[in-house]
């Protein structure tokens, strides 16, 4: 779902213009799911599409989750002696610092034979990066320099010095801050759920096709019996609410829908399936 906007066609097929910036946020459940610690097929397909978009002169920035979530699937194998029900924010930050290296290594291997992406880089930031003018300017300068080098920027929260995202184990807020700072045209949140439901996980669940009032939709979050759903929907609604006053197209997409990225970025498909 996204807001309507006057748009320019790119090569007659795409609804973006040259050099527009797209921020893509990939949820953990896409990259680490079903008790598997990494889904390389999904990761490869995402990189393939980003490589294509960069090849038609669009600036793409990736905000990738996974590093915090993956330890849930590997602790049983590697660290049996510290397995327990709940972990402190410091413990989660420690796991993130370990697995972010592996995350970047996967991405680095996947871009080796890409046509347009030369290499990947990682920018670790926190909320203060966007609040302090000098830090923000330095961050944007590196992003733009990397883009000129055909390097894919992969952004994560610096969990070693910040704990904000770890409270929710998600990067929605970070993706929003990046989109605003870079004046992105589009923010795409790739997830494993279609959208917002009434009575989620119940027999009479119903997909909400159109959101006219965020306040009205929040009640479905409050009524939810699932802690996961409550967290998931609250995170998305918070981002949506902040973006209302900014001219950024906000799209929430279910990765498991066939050819979802093609449907988002191809004009004819997007006009039929994305715009409301």
Please explain how this structure is put together.
The structure is a single chain. The protein has a single domain (21-273), classed as 3-Layer(aba) Sandwich (Carbamate kinase). The strands form 2 sheets. It has a 6-stranded parallel β-sheet with strand order 3-4-2-1-5-8, sandwiched between helices. A two-stranded antiparallel ribbon has the order 6-7. By secondary structure, the chain is α/β, with parallel strands linked by helices. It is built from 11 helices and 8 strands. The chain has helices spanning 28-31, 40-55, 71-78, 89-110, 127-131, 133-148, 172-181, 214-222, 227-243, 260-265, 267-273, and strands at 21-26, 59-64, 119-125, 151-157, 186-191, 197-198, 206-207, 249-254.
What about the largest sheet? 6 strands, parallel
Average pLDDT over all residues: 77
How many beta-strand elements? Answer: 8
Q: Look at the helices and sheets and give the structural class.
A: alpha/beta
The percent range for helix content is 40-55%
Summarize the helix and strand pattern as letters: EHHEHHEHHEHEEEHHEHH
Strand % is 15-25%
Using the CA coordinates, give the radius of gyration. Answer: 18 Å
Widest sheet, order of strands? 3-4-2-1-5-8
Can you tell me the CATH superfamily?
A: Acetylglutamate kinase-like
